[in-house]
Design goal:
Shape: globular
Radius of gyration: 19 Å
CATH topology: UDP-N-acetylmuramoyl-L-alanine:D-glutamate ligase
Order of helices and strands: EEEHEHEEEHEHEHHEHHEEEHH
Structural class: alpha/beta
Number of domains: 1
């Protein structure tokens, strides 16, 4: 059976305005206006597709009748990855993402309060039933906030070895909910800032919470990983694509996460069965993907296999 990865829950509308910057008028002429889906989950889902695997996104959306909610729903409907709309929040979310390096293009917006509403508990069972029916083994919970822990807990109840957790800083700071969520994760992946908010918790102590594999990404410094029972190891970033290119965009962490999972799927391995050498192989592939990604503008715009 072909593996299908589910990702959730951070899905934001990315509003793109394209101006004629060559005009002599005081204000540039608006040439086009469109919306796309971004956010951690949407980026990971698109990256999985770009790298040759199947994926589906579980999207938490706003429930209001405001312009932002309508733009977000429009972006969801045109997103190339199938999604399950899970309308349980009071606010939608518009992202701000400048695209320096692309002529005549500007992405604008504002970051609103995305998590003012609580998840509707009665929706969780219904949603999980839908997911279990349609999705394969992998469960990827990305950009997770404290309010989303009940849904993540249900997601991680099954499929041991195929559960990856990427918490937001807010979840790491909420220690009881972080522990509850990490307990059933097989892979815990965080950037250095998120790890710093663990308040001096060691990687070994993170393993004791549950995850067999812990990965800490450190941007231009590469990162570190630890397999439970082995000594932590550092890994280097891939700089092959920077020789004749500039860093024009972030989003590399989402593509690193997706690429690691894709390589696991290609190897036919779960997190539980990866050997130490296979972990190194998956990380090297993920670093290569993210190294190419930083030369490509737009959070959702990244490499496919032919680009590597």
């Amino acid at each position: 059976m072909k593996e299908i990865a589910l990702v959730g829950f951070s899905a934001n509308a990315e509003v793109i305005q394209v101006y004629d910057r060559m005009t002599t008028k005081q204000k540039g002429v608006l040439e086009s206006f469109e919306s796309d889906l971004c956010g951690t989950s949407a980026n990971v889902a698109r990256a999985i597709i770009s790298l040759g695997q199947s994926s589906k996104v579980l999207a938490l959306t706003g429930v209001g009748d405001d312009l932002e909610s309508h733009i977000l729903r429009f972006a969801l409907k045109k997103f190339p990855v199938p999604y399950s709309e899970f309308m349980v929040l009071n606010h939608s979310h518009i992202s701000v993402l400048p695209l320096d390096g692309i002529p005549n293009t500007k992405i604008f917006g504002r970051k609103g309060s995305f998590m003012e509403g609580e998840i509707m508990e009665e929706k969780i069972g219904e949603t999980i039933a839908l997911i279990d029916k349609e999705i394969g083994l992998w469960r990827i919970a990305t950009g997770v906030r404290p309010e989303e822990t009940p849904l993540v807990t249900e997601l991680f109840n099954k499929h041991e070895g195929h559960r990856s957790l990427n918490p937001r800083r807010e979840l790491v700071e909420d220690r009881p909910k972080f522990i509850e969520t990490a307990r059933n994760a097989d892979l815990l992946i965080m950037n250095q800032e998120e790890f710093d908010y663990c308040d001096e918790v060691s990687i070994d102590e993170l393993h004791k919470l549950g995850p067999r594999l812990v990965i800490i990404t450190r941007s231009k410094d590469g990162g570190a990983f630890s397999v439970k029972g082995s000594e932590p190891e550092k890994f280097k970033p891939c700089t092959d694509y920077l020789k004749n290119s500039e860093v024009v965009e972030t989003g590399a962490g989402d593509w690193f996460h997706a690429a690691f999972i894709v390589r696991c799927i290609e190897l036919g391995k779960s997190i539980s069965t990866l050997s130490l050498e296979e972990v190194r192989e998956c990380i090297a592939f993920a670093a290569r993907v993210s190294g190419k990604k930083v030369t490509m503008p737009g959070a959702a715009n990244g490499p496919n296999k032919e680009d590597l």
